């Protein structure tokens, strides 16, 4: 096994554990919800 | 004076070139001091090749447009003469072979022509190929030599290499052309003794 | 007798040591990079430069014992053929002669000049009974940097065609220049040997040059493994993400979207989140309308705290005719994903308002008909899978082996 392959495996483990944690905590950068902070959305801004 | 058989010698003190003829000696010029170099070979270094023991008695330094090299004049125990040319860490040990001058390729050089790398000459079934052509000038000398090494002495040198490691050298100067046949060596292959001690380096075991 | 001759650089005045005096012809000044002619006792400037000389893994002057012999690095060259760049080091020992070390992308080769010449022709040569075939790739190499001394005239910008003949991992390199022909045998040497010979540390450039993209010998079979690992990891991640998503529960409702006003607080239904955290996706499907759009504001309200998590959905559809013919645009269905919803029971409300396009006016109530209202069917579902996360994961996993493959294909061209 080369040094490069080893680093790649670490990278894979990092990504997969990140994805699984995100699933456990139900977090996604693509979620559409609005909470607290900027909850006042000003209503619809469409067209 | 190390070698009685050769007529020219350089006086180490005053750099005069002395020509001996019988019992008389004549100063015929000045010789340039050989420039500093890190050659492991020096005067009185001895070599043993194929059972024959030889000693350096003189040296000529030749320079060309992009470099320079040493040629050591050796006197063997059997009385014969040898030349040891030294360049880029490689050595050519050769003995005179006037018969090779009869060859057509050598004749071209003898009659003033030029040779180019890649030309072939066959000797004893081996293909000798030109690997080096240089016009050189004498930069200085020391010790005893068979020709006058006055500053500016010009010479054209052609080296050949064979697949067996065989070496051939043709040299043309004002006095004519000579042919020298022998072998290529690394220093270790010459079984040297009496090498120069250079500061910062140790002489390898096998060469002491 | 001292082995070193000291000279001054004619350009910058720097003090330089000449270690192979009498043999060396050119010297690259390590301070300013100028090329100096040292073939004669008087030192002459060949080419003046005024910049820092490059750093080499083996700077001229370092000594090391390689294969039982002590060598001193006296010269270093950096050469390039337009794609790859490599370093050539000239080693010297006055009692042995010269040798070469070539360093190319972390791979090292040891070079020795031949005493006996190879025989051959255009396509192959024979040397000491072994046949060497001409290498496919015979690039033109340009000398970029010169530091230290050399036994021939070296200049920055020199171009030479590299002729080489290969046999297994060894190669014979032919150089023709200045009325001379020289052959050199190059054999691979492990980087470890160089490191221990010259006392280099592990994190020196010898290893840094092992770039992530270029691989040789023992690296060449790790690419298929990378693809395998990324595939296995993606499948595993997918399965686990499906499991972690949790049980699915649905609440379905129909809401009405009036024009000119928002109908608020329409209850869709109630859902329970069973796991510590879950995603909820709300799918809205509009009825068959045209040139209308509907704003929907969702509120997912936690029964125990009264706190609400909000979101927005939009269904729209437009059509018409123009000079190119009929066109239509928009989607009557939309999904809104909510994350980070903790365990609990939630009521889902929606506020909706319909709009007309291009002019946002309530359509005229005509006679006995009630004002127009759009119907939207809404379904809230717990336990949805965050697909965005999965595709991102896959992209990042595959990026590395794909990049390596791309670089390899490019290098082969």
Give the averaged pLDDT of chain A, no decimals.
79
Strand arrangement, major sheet of chain B: 5-6-7-8-13-12-11-10
How would you classify the quaternary structure? heterotrimer
Gyration radius of chain A (Cα, Å) is 19 Å
Beta-strand residue fraction of chain A: under 5%
Terminal residue distance of chain A: 57 Å
- What amount of the residues of chain B lies in strands? over 45%
Mean pLDDT of chain B: 87
Task: Tell how many strands the DSSP assignment of chain B holds.
Answer: 13
Tally the structural domains of chain B. Answer: 1
Structural class of the secondary elements of chain A?
mainly alpha
What letter string, H or E per element, gives the SSE order of chain A? H
Helical content band of chain B: under 10%
Main sheet of chain B? 8 strands, antiparallel, barrel
**How are helices and strands ordered from N to C of chain B?**
EEEEEEEEHEEEEE
Low-confidence residue ranges of chain A: 38-47
Task: Note the overall shape of chain A.
Answer: rod-shaped
Summarize this structure as a short list of keywords or feature phrases.
heterotrimer, A: 47 residues, mainly alpha, 1 helix, rod-shaped, disordered C terminus, C: 413 residues, alpha+beta, Jelly Rolls, 2 domains, 16-stranded antiparallel β-sheet, 7-stranded antiparallel β-sheet, 4 helices
